[in-house]
Amino acid sequence: MSKGELKRRFFIAVYPPEHIAKALHEATKDIDEDWDRKSSEDYHISLAFPGHLTMAQVERLEESLSELEHAPFKISLTGVSFHWRDPFDKNARNHVLWARADNDGDNELSDLHSKLVTLLQQKNFRHGLRDISPHITIARPPPEAGDLMKEFAKAHAHIDGEEWECDRIFICETLEKSDPRHPANNNGQGSKFVKVAEIKLKR
């Protein structure tokens, strides 16, 4: 790393097509205003977390991911679930309300994640959690909203989502709030996640 070069935070993810992301956002439009609802532009499925990297390391990561072997696959979103945080734990973070993939899509995403972990380890990159539950985060309700969140998830347990072909993954950067590209510095417009590289899936 050259003197003065800063490391930025990156992850690897799958993105739904824009029209599917917007349809999910519309289907869950009755989310409470205080639940930190995510923009459809932010919708993604995280698969691995290489963490803080220099741009030179990102280039090496992109080159490494070109070796990944996983055929494109079909996926659809089928409903809303949640991750519960203990509201009586003073260190608890917000709950997570999320959209889940269909069974076949979930299996493909889990397999893709496993292959990514193996490849990242071989290339001496961090990968984050070994076990994940592939999902799209919709909102992060506060700890005290647990019961309302459960009711919302029950009411939206089944979503007739359109199927799409997942044929690529992305290296993405998480913008710091100090970054001029962050939505906080642009009247709330845009995403705090920026795609910096695209890798097509192949057999």
Structure summarized in a few sentences:
With about 200 residues, the protein is α+β, with helices and mostly antiparallel strands. It has four helices and nine strands; from the N terminus they run βαβαβββαβαβββ.
Which helices and strands occur, and which strands form pairs?
Elements: E1 8-14, H1 18-27, E2 45-53, H2 55-65, E3 73-75, E4 77-83, E5 96-101, H3 103-122, E6 135-139, H4 146-155, E7 164-166, E8 168-174, E9 193-200
Antiparallel strand pairs: 1-2, 1-8, 3-7, 4-5, 5-6, 8-9
Q: Can you walk me through this structure?
A:
This protein starts with 7 loop residues before the first strand and ends with a strand. With 203 residues, it is of the alpha+beta class. It has helices at residues 18-27, 55-65, 103-122, 146-155; strands spanning 8-14, 45-53, 73-75, 77-83, 96-101, 135-139, 164-166, 168-174, 193-200. The chain has one domain (8-200): Cyclic Phosphodiesterase, Chain: A (Alpha-Beta Complex), CATH 3.90.1140. A four-stranded antiparallel β-sheet has the order 2-1-8-9, covered by helices on one side.
